[in-house]
Amino acid sequence: MGRDLSALFDPKSVAVVGASDDPAKYGHAVAAQALRAPDRRPVHLVNRRGGTVLGRTAATSLAAIGEPVDLVVISVPGPGFEAAVDDALACGARALVGITAGFAETGAVGLARQQAIADRVRAAGAVLVGPNCLGIADNTTELYLASDRFAPGGIALLSQSGNLALELQLRCAPHGLGFSRFVSLGNQADVTLVDLIEDAAGHDATRAIAVYAEDFGDGRAFAEAAAAAGKPVVLLTAGRGAASARSAQSHTGALTTSADVVAAACRDAGIELVATPHEMTVVLAALHGGRRAAGPRTAVCTDGGGHGAIAADATETAGLAVPELAPAAQQRLRTLLWEQSAVGNPVDLAGMGERNPHSYGDTVAALLALDEVDSVLLTGYFGGYSAATGGLGGPAAQSGTAGGGSALAAGELETAQQMAVRATSAAKPLVVQSMFPDAPSCRTLVEAGIPVFAATEDAARALAAMTPAPSAPEAAGPPGVRPLPPAAPPLDDPGYHGVRALLSAAHVPFPEAREITGEAQLLAAADAFEGPYVLKALHLLHKSDAGGVALGLPDRSALLAAFREMHARLGAASYSVEAMADLTDGVELIVGVHRDPRFGPVAMVGLGGVLTEALHDVAFALAPVPADRAAQLLTGLRTAALLQGVRGRPPVDLAAAAAVIERVTTVAAAHPEIAEIEVNPLLVRPDGALALDARAVLA
Q1: In the chain, what are the domains?
Q2: Tens-place pLDDT, residues 202-243
Q3: Three-class SS of residue 316?
Q4: Which SS3 state, helix, strand or coil, does residue 243 take?
Q5: Are strands 674-685 and 688-691 parallel, antiparallel or unpaired?
Q6: Bridge-based pairing state of the strands 14-17 and 43-46
Q7: What are phi and psi of 601, to 5 degrees?
Q8: Is the peptide bond before 532 cis (omega within 30 degrees of 0)?
Q9: What does the DSSP 8-state code read for residue 572?
């Protein structure tokens, strides 16, 4: 159950402390916005000098108002912030918005002040947004407590940047998108991003949640909240390129970056991760209507071969498919189009739209009705005829054929209206790319909730956002975020054999092995199990590179000779004697877990062995990773064909590999003291999986 934020978004009364007539002060902008809805609730302006602000009498203090205030916005100089908070709590405030800066962002002293304030607010049973924020707004309750207006609509915008929020509003407007809420996150001293997502999930007027965040706080809780929201969550973030661990002591740590972690969390939680405000707008336009494709099969419709070819390439680049239509479908299209039209996919009207604009709508409707099509992308010239009459530079305006242009424009507008009705009644998504996205016919589509874009790649990205990921071909939803298991007793022996014992107890299979320090123990180990043998020098990260691994030693004498040579060269404190595994028809994998400070344990699986870092064919997910998800990660690798059998080799036991991945990642998730753990290589053969090496690093 989330926190009660009702006083934050629909308070009974509001006060702005620090309200000012000086346009250079933020208290002026917030006060002016607050007064936009004076009849919805009492709005009190507070200025310690009294007098009037924006033509209204200002109280000199909250106490001077003479009645309780539900929500208080505080925009005062830093030294006076604590006193203002205390005054607000004393007058019964249940919610506070802290505009004032100068807290955690300034260092340890500011952080301590901020924490003390948050503690007082929570102890009083109130909630605080900020400090160091730019306000909030809720169009559904006529609450305007930010410096700018946000057009009403269905998007809840939660942002750490005020300017980015304004840019998103400008970019969203041409797509007919508006905002149910806006919250500037600030320092998240009390109310967090997780709290706001949970509240937006239950907000009827919110249809999608847009987030710009650099500090996730508890990243795993963020992913869990987004996964449980039941509404699209689109994330724009920055700083994902820096390595999360500068001095990693395992392959897993060395290969895991902040970007990998955020991307893994988003995939698992079903969050749409975007790289720019432009891409965020594209995805929001796609997801806002709620329509989803059942699969990746896209039909491209165009009235020009060039646009069709470019759109097909962009669609496939976005991860979708443009399959050739079946003969029956092509025959159906032949009855609608003329002889020179292409009907294989892309479907090219080949100029028929110039004679009959209704051919666009008829063709799109026919494609949407095909069982073999999951979505439709209309690309190219549609919109050009009505653009002429709208003064947007369409063909009739350029050629001077006003009469013919008017007839074409009327036909295009009519087919746009029909297309809107047909597309909105269909279960499948339609996305449009037009050379004239602002034309009246295209605006008709936008008003009906059909996304229209000027760029082909944007239309393809939009369709990708409306299509389930390949790992969930039956639209089963995102993989999800599994809860962490209960903490297990701490690992007290992080050495090689201690880690083997920990994983063996979780039923991770290993070859027989003995740790030895001298020749007598080595010979005893050789008597304990049959050769051939493996000898490893322990406590080396890259054993093979250092010459610390000897394989296929056939007997005791070969084992003893290898030990003497290796020990003379490396002088390791201890060694491991192991039974040599059968490598026939095997593939070496890696499975590891790196504990991220924000998102907790993050698993990495991929092609393993000595070339792990060179090949970098790995995939990531939040740990623990269930076996079915592990299988998806493996089959999504670039080298997945190796697992399925190539050049006459049999396929390996993918289920056995996935089971080991589940066990290793579950162990890691249950041990918060382990910073990094990995099995490399994990040998997977047609008859099972066997862990050949393991390593752990304590936090």
Answers
A1: 1-137 (3.40.50.720), 148-247+271-290 (3.40.50.261), 298-465 (3.40.50.261), 512-579 (3.30.1490.20), 587-698 (3.30.470.20)
A2: 999 999 999 999 888 899 999 999 999 999 999 999 865 544
A3: helix
A4: strand
A5: antiparallel
A6: parallel
A7: -70, 130
A8: yes
A9: -
